[in-house]
Amino acid sequence: MTTGTLTAGRARFRLPRRQIPVLATLALLLVMYGIGVSQYQAFSNVQVIFNIFIDNGFLLVVAVGMTFVILTGGIDLSVGSVVAMTAMVSASLLQKGLPAALVLVIALLIGPTLGLLMGCAIHFFEIQPFIVTLAGMFFARGMCTFISGSSIPISDGFWTRMSQERIGDPRGNFVSISVLIAFAVVAVAAYTLAYTRLGRNVYAIGGNPQSALLMGLPVGRTRIAVYTISGLCSAIGGILLSFYTLSGAPLIAVGMELDVIAAVVIGGTVLTGGSGYVFGTVLGVLVLGVIQTLITFDGSLNSWWTRIVIGGLLFAFILFQRLVGIRYK
Amino acid sequence: MTDNRPVLTMTGISKSFPGVRALHDVNFRLLPGEVHALMGENGAGKSTLIKVLTGVYDTDAGAITLHGEPVSFAGPMQATAAGVSTVYQEVNLCTNLSVAENIFIGREPRLLGAVRWGEVRRRARTLLARLELDLDVSAPLGSYSLAIQQMVAIARAIDIQARVLILDEPTSSLDAGEVAQLFRIMRQLRDEGIAILFVTHFLDQVYEIADRITVLRNGGLVGEYTTTELPQLGLVEKMIGKELDVLEGIEEHSRRDLAAVEEGTPLVAVSNFGRAGAVEPFSLTIHAGEVVGLAGLLGSGRTEVARLLFGADRPDGGQVTVDGRPSSLRTPAQAIDHGVGFCSENRRAEGIVADLSVRENLILAMQAARGWLRPIPRRRQDELVDKYIKALTIRPSDPEVPVRNLSGGNQQKVLLARWLITEPRLLILDEPTRGIDIGAKTEIQKLVTQLSDGGMAVLFISAELEEVLRLSHKVAVMRDRQMVAQLANDDTLDADRVMQTIASGSHGEEADR
């Protein structure tokens, strides 16, 4: 440290620290896929991957919303209930004979409105996101059973078309429209986080909210926005789920918020905020999907093994993030 | 100073917090193209004045004008937009974002709403080149040192078309070369007509760079002076409001010589003590009543030595004896059991519990030592707290004020008092006087002398050599994470010799032990 031009102690490792968790997830995914392919001949079929997306499209959309929230260092526990509530509202309105377009608009407004309210409570009253969204979770779940105590089937033409439409290649592999919607959401979210002020403010707040405030960034507005975005993603997820099941059930997607958080964290987003990517979340959802598929292919394993494996992985990943974090501090 | 109309005036500013009157009827003006030093002891109201100016706080009374127009900022964003930029004492940037993004976030160049990253990086490089900084602008800010982060904060502030630049203690974490570089930039900006408000505790720096000085004391205005009309001693008197015989006291105090202090069994002796990646193995003995100074540059391993001795980091190996008996210092709890206390350099993150009151903060360590099952009676608490608030002149003297509302220097005193209450046998002070004013500094130095006379051993870590030399019986010199020498502080030892030792690492002779 002498005078003259400062060259400054450069970072010791060139490998970007924030991408390490994502790369680890990618490696894990490839290993698991490799195991699947080597064990089961049918696993190498492209449709296996497509099916993972078809079965988990709504989970992916909700996880994208959760990524925004977790990047600011917050948490949203209401997502599973909001998904169920959106599906219930759609099913019940369709049953009453409302036109599909109007039902879509109404259903897509409920989630973000609840998210906006929760965001305001978190920001203006400085209440922990955990508690506010827990209240939101109970509220939305309660609304589901308020609408109907039992499952409502959907027979609307638009819904059934969305459910059954297959977009495929000549060899017979196909995806559903929901998958395309999910990809569109992922693309918009990735763009928002990387290229818009809103997205960059999300990272800044997750890094250091106090600094973000002093740098003149709109901390309050951004915080409210992420819960609204999460609510919107949950609403879209709810619609996709109702396409998938063609019904609204009051007890569907119970505990889904935890799967979503697991997917986001396994995807490399740090729970304390400020670091993570939407692409990682896609990988995280794929990891969950591949585990499910492996267990289905095995056939002899109880489906609860999915949970056990996810539990183990989640723990391993949080530990891993912690170790990477300490190394670089 | 061609144009003499002030770019900024503040008149009759008052501000109170619960239990504290932070500012009372303060006037302040800033001319274009000047560096104006805002001086005062800790708690004099400097930080509050700046926060009022930039809209972080509302005023209770008073008016602010910018370019003759009355203004009232709702927050730093508005102030920045109006051309009043601030670089705060602690670096307020996001370490998880890249250097370039930290400079531009909130006002990135955009095309149809999309941030143009190429442009952001290009402009960041241009701007940093103007400051003669050679950084990888896409690396995360956290991969650079605090000093570099400070420079980046300044880059952020001057990029906004600032007319007024507020630098709140920007130099407290910079080394001499970096300070010189900062001053060069400040002069350059001043010549461009920017008004710079500069807050620092280093008096020499004021006389090196400032054109005018405004002095605050206890939330009130003392006066506004040009640097040439107010000599350094006069400034200090204005700041503390009394004659400077306090300082003399310490100088006259004759230090007991090393041989007398180092009689008998050492209180703590370590040998071959080290930790890979933190500090090379070293040996050190500390006797009761001895002050051992630890000198060296920022990052030379001073704090690492302190943390090892306190058990905050685990040593890789080596022997420890306490009172001549083999022992170990592997956890802070063990160290505390042996009567070791540690005042961390990072008081905000590692020491003070900001939301608790002064009393509660003071009692913490003592309560921890007694165990939670034996609460200290309230009357005893009040007695103790009273005693230390008086002894260390903690201001405000109300023990129920949350520590968050105290100034930096007073927080430091609270932290010190917290350890003193437990009556440690060895007290480790890591940069106890950094970022605090001359009055509080003198008080803390005096206290160290008194404590050592009373038989307490002190490990005193400071970047200021004069201070280390004034207080220590023995000076251990650190360089590049190695303890390169231990020098007896006799008449022959002066700052030059210590500096040579730091620079060369071998020229200084080993101490007589």
- Give the domain tally of chain B: 3
CATH architecture of the largest domain in chain B: 3-Layer(aba) Sandwich
- CA-atom Rg of chain A in angstroms: 21 Å
Oligomer, anyone? Answer: heterodimer
Which fold does the CATH topology of the largest domain in chain B refer to?
A: Rossmann fold
Q: Spans of chain A of 5+ residues with little confidence (pLDDT < 50)?
A: 1-14
Q: How far do the termini of chain B sit from each other?
A: 59 Å
Work out the helicity level of chain B: 25-40%
Main location (chain A): membrane
Protein name (chain A): Sugar ABC transporter permease YjfF
InterPro entries (chain A): ABC_transp_permease (IPR001851)
Membrane topology (chain A): Multi-pass membrane protein
Structure notes:
The complex is a heterodimer of chains A (329) and B (513). Chain A is mostly helical and 329 residues long. Chain A is built from 13 helices and four strands. Chain A has helices at residues 20-39, 46-71, 79-95, 100-124, 129-147, 157-164, 177-195, 197-207, 209-214, 219-245, 256-266, 278-298, 304-328; strands spanning 152-153, 167-168, 174-175, 247-248. In chain A, helix 8 packs across helix 10 (219-245), helix 11 (256-266) packs across helix 12 and helix 11 (256-266) packs across helix 13 (304-328). The two termini of chain A are 21 Å apart. In chain B, the strands form five sheets. Chain B has a six-stranded mixed sheet with strand order 6-9-10-3-11-12, sandwiched between helices. In chain B, strands 18-19-20-15-21-22 form a six-stranded mixed sheet, with helices on both faces. Chain B has a four-stranded antiparallel sheet with strand order 2-1-4-5, with helices on one face. The model of chain B is unreliable at 505-513 (pLDDT under 50). The interface between A and B is large, with 38 and 46 residues.
